[in-house]
Amino acid sequence: MTDTTGAGGPQDHESDGPTGPVIRDKRRIDPETGQVRDVSAEQVQETAAEQVAGGDNAFGGGVGDALPGGEQDPSGAPQATSGTPVDGGRSADDLHPDTVVAADRLEDLRRLQAEYVNYKRRVDRDRVRDREAGTTTVVEALLPVLDDLHMAKEHGELTEGPLLAIADKLETTLGRFGVERLGAVGETFDPAVHEALMHLPEADLPEGATETTIVQVMQPGFKVGDRVVRAARVAVADPA
């Protein structure tokens, strides 16, 4: 058991007298002779134990004190803080105002570019649709004329002459605008573009026909692009 005295350090009642702080000279060079002292293994171990007990290390502090920012994650890697250098050695708090403004303008430019691309696609789609709608209106207005020309051809009245040339030019002009005639003798019947008005079981079919086939066209049909203006009105027959 030890206690303190008024005259000095702690006193051990089991010893002969008071004991004070123990001073050990651990200098490797003797200050009097200038020679290197011999250090025993026991002294080296004792010094190392004292350093571990006192928290001494090579950094003179905690591991975090030797890392940038003074912080580290559980893996031991330093974490970036507001003062930690980032890209180009500059911290996140040191960005120039012009850099922030430039980033905002770049984002605005990208947004405007995306809006323009979408607008252009929409305009192109609407342009094709409007063109087809206008052509469809013209074809619907010309249906009576086209029907009369078809009937004249069926009765052999348009075999020659200027009227035949006019009829051919009209059909060629409509073809340049995407107008397509529907219905022809020998075609396979398609309910999507044909309207069967009669069924003729005794009609002659083309050689090799295996499906319901058109044998007579009463009114030709027309379509513009994918839109059917009028289905062809036909008579059909089935193969035997």
From TrEMBL:
Q: Which InterPro entries match?
A: GrpE, GrpE_CC, GrpE_head
Answer yes or no on keyword Ribonucleoprotein.
no
Task: Give one Pfam family.
Answer: GrpE
Which locations, inside or outside the cell, does it occupy? Cytoplasm
* Record's keyword terms, sorted: Chaperone, Coiled coil, Cytoplasm, Stress response
Sequence segments annotated as region (Disordered): 1-96
Taking the record's annotation, the residue ranges forming a coiled coil are 102-129
Instruction: Name the job this protein performs.
Output: Participates actively in the response to hyperosmotic and heat shock by preventing the aggregation of stress-denatured proteins, in association with DnaK and GrpE. It is the nucleotide exchange factor for DnaK and may function as a thermosensor. Unfolded proteins bind initially to DnaJ; upon interaction with the DnaJ-bound protein, DnaK hydrolyzes its bound ATP, resulting in the formation of a stable complex. GrpE releases ADP from DnaK; ATP binding to DnaK triggers the release of the substrate protein, thus completing the reaction cycle.
* Assembly mode: Homodimer.
Q: Which family does it belong to?
A: Belongs to the GrpE family.
Q: Which PANTHER family match?
A: GRPE PROTEIN, GRPE PROTEIN HOMOLOG, MITOCHONDRIAL
Q: What is this protein called?
A: Protein GrpE
Q: Which organism is it from?
A: Ornithinimicrobium cryptoxanthini
